[in-house]
Design goal:
266 residues; alpha/beta; Glycerol-3-phosphate (1)-acyltransferase; 8-stranded mixed β-sheet; 1-acyl-sn-glycerol-3-phosphate acyltransferase; transferase; acyltransferase; 1-acylglycerol-3-phosphate O-acyltransferase activity
């Protein structure tokens, strides 16, 4: 496991980027955004059912959602991408979970360097719409009704995937939320990484551009005045005490969220 220094990779939406004609025509109704979103979902689903939704296709699909976000007025800034490839082999990427947005655009920044999958709730793998797509990514699914069973599933399945070279994205929270409660940010990512002997790459996310819907979380408003901010941090190595790594991960997330003006609960 080697650490490669001296690299700096970032991404930022061009300040000259204009909203698409379709988005301008529909104004603030968000119809262009949701049309483009579901169009890409159905395309991806069809490919997954044919067994054609591989890591590269997932990366391209994620990039299309990123383009859609920018075409609908979203401004994106991603920093610290070099942290993902600063260590050889698979990693656990862990951070806060704010909205649907990160699940769709993170892959385009990760899969270019490492094959990756998610820890997801079981319902996402069994649903008719998203199920084929999620199953094609060989995710770790958890029921969220029995924390002990979920922990065992993540540790056992996650370790097996990491040993095969597959990196894993984990959101150690019970649900997506625009504010952040440190007490609800568990240590499952750190435990998985320690067991598998791989680093954790922290990630802080501000993605409230895409609001969580009240009835259907994926179907909600977008806020063009809210910038999408994603920052990856330095690797946390498994040779360090797990409690210290958990503290470092939590501090990384909290400090960035506070700097970005996100509410952090006591």
């Amino acid at each position: 496991m080697s650490y490669k220094e001296g690299l700096s990779i970032s991404y930022e939406t061009s300040p000259d980027k204009k909203r698409s004609l379709a988005d301008l025509i529909f104004g603030d109704t968000d119809l262009a955004f949701h049309y483009g979103y579901f169009k890409e979902i159905f395309r991806s689903r069809a490919l997954a059912l044919k067994g054609l939704y591989d890591n590269q296709t997932w990366c391209e699909s994620s990039a299309k959602i990123l383009d859609l976000v920018e075409n609908c007025g979203g401004k994106v800034k991603v920093q610290g991408i070099e942290k993902i490839l600063s260590v050889d082999g698979p990693v656990v990427i862990a951070g806060n979970h704010m909205s649907t947005c990160e699940t769709f655009i993170l892959p385009t920044f990760v899969t270019q360097y490492k094959p990756v999958t998610f820890v997801v709730k079981e319902s996402l793998t069994t649903g008719k719409l998203f199920g084929p797509i999620m199953r094609s990514r060989d995710p770790i699914s958890v029921g969220r009704s029995n924390p002990r069973e979920d922990l065992v599933a993540v540790l056992e399945q996650g370790t097996a995937l990491l040993k095969k070279g597959m990196s894993i994205i984990v959101f150690p929270q019970s649900t997506r939320t625009t504010d952040f409660t440190p007490a609800e940010f568990n240590s499952i990512a750190i435990k998985l990484a320690a067991r598998a002997g791989v680093p954790v790459i922290p990630v802080a996310l501000k993605t409230d551009f895409w609001e969580n819907g009240r009835i259907v979380k994926d179907l909600a408003r977008i806020f063009r005045n809210r910038k999408i901010l994603i920052t990856f941090g330095d690797p946390l190595f498994p040779t360090t005490d797990s409690r210290k790594n958990q503290e470092s991960l939590l501090n990384f997330v909290v400090s960035h969220l506070k700097n970005w003006g996100t509410k952090v609960n006591d």
